Amino acid sequence: MLGICYRYVQSIEEAEDILQDGFVKVFIHLKKFKGEGSLEGWIRKVMVNTALNYLKANHRFTETIKEDEVDDHPEWRADSDSETKEIMEEIRLLPTGFRTVFNLYAIEGYSHKEIGELLNISEGTSRSQYSRARNALMKKLTGKMSREEKR
To answer: What angle do CA 17, 96, 108 make, to 5 degrees?
Structure first.
């Protein structure tokens, strides 16, 4: 669960704070878990919502992006654990708005409509931020790959 929290913030200390707050919420609201689906999935959702609330409360999700057409780029896939770690680190370094939408859409599986409702942004803004996050990520990763090939 710490990994889930860490995807939304810049430091491990912030992630630990979110994790602690999340588990407090889990224990307080455990009676609301009705056994539909997995307990892990329910806890994961509590952690994601706690991270989003943290970002909102600390005014960290204030970046506004103009609505654009979504650019289509080929997907890039990691071939090893080290590449996966590198990708996750690059995601963590994205600006807060980009990182949040990217995590919710690409990793957590939320739709752009759901993200818009969660973050109080339009569906188009969610799409735009996801596209820009993906483009920034691709640029960083392809730049690193070309530097490594020159070595």
So the answer is: 75
40/62 Cα distance (integer angstroms):
30
Alpha carbon 75 to chain centroid distance?
17
In terms of C-beta density within 10 A (0-12 exposed, 13-18 middle, 19 or more buried), how is residue 29 classed? Answer: exposed
- Report the chain's C-alpha Rg in angstroms: 16
pTM of the full predicted structure?
Answer: 0.72
How many CB atoms within 10 Å of residue 106?
15
State the DSSP string of the chain: -HHHHHTTSSSHHHHHHHHHHHHHHHHHSGGG--SSS-HHHHHHHHHHHHHHHHHHHTT---------PPPP-------SHHHHHHHHHHHHTS-HHHHHHHIIIIIS---HHHHHHHHT--HHHHHHHHHHHHHHHHHHHHHHHHHHHH-
Q: Scanning the structure block, which residue is given the tokens 């939304």? A: 8
pLDDT tens sequence across 110-126: 999 999 999 999 999 99
